[in-house]
Design goal:
Length: about 190
């Protein structure tokens, strides 16, 4: 019996390795995406908020950002993936995409400095220092981006960095169904 106990770690390792390779094969076949986490907000209204704007501290609410579709991007200066994503967001804003951001659990001065240095693609930045609005959104980590329609309904959530490939595959088809401000956005 003592000899059998010696094989328990080996059996556990083999079982974990089999699970790992099974998931890896599903990812390669496109059956599983680790960033596809379900969101209870899809097809529901954006949670109500009242948060200070990062730039001037004025209080912003849902009514300040509704009226046309927009992206709601959750980011922070402590997030390395947000640094990768940021130039693409600047390019989207240059094309006329309305992006509202949530600076999530961050330092206001560091965030202001970061936007001054890297460019500010956002029409407004909500400062969520405690992360309460992030909890209401169901944020699991930064960056996360939500597509919100003109009525304030969340239509899609993406976890991870946006780039041209993800934009074209995930966002552009959905935006084509919304009232897009320009034809170049659906490309």
């Amino acid at each position: 019996m003592q000899r059998l106990k010696l094989f328990i770690p080996l059996l556990v390792f083999v079982a974990l390795a089999a699970m790992f390779f099974g998931v890896e094969r599903r990812v390669q076949r496109g059956e599983y995406a680790p960033t596809d986490l379900p969101s209870a907000l899809v097809n529901r209204p954006l949670p109500a908020f009242s948060l200070p704007a990062l730039d001037d501290g004025r209080t912003l609410t849902n009514s300040d950002i509704q009226g046309e579709w927009f992206l709601l991007n959750v980011w922070a200066t402590w997030c390395p993936t947000c640094h990768y994503e940021h130039p693409f967001l600047v390019a989207l804003a240059d094309q006329g995409v309305k992006i509202v951001s949530v600076d999530y659990k961050d330092n206001a001065k560091a965030a202001q400095r970061w936007l001054a240095e890297k460019g500010n693609p956002y029409v407004a930045t909500l400062f969520d220092e405690a992360g309460d609005f992030g909890l209401d959104l169901g944020v699991t980590g930064a960056p996360e981006t939500y597509l919100v329609d003109a009525a304030g309904i969340v239509r899609f959530r993406y976890q991870g960095a946006l780039d041209q490939a993800i934009w074209g595959r995930e966002f552009a088809p959905l935006i084509a169904g919304l009232a897009a401000p320009s034809a170049e956005l659906s490309q």
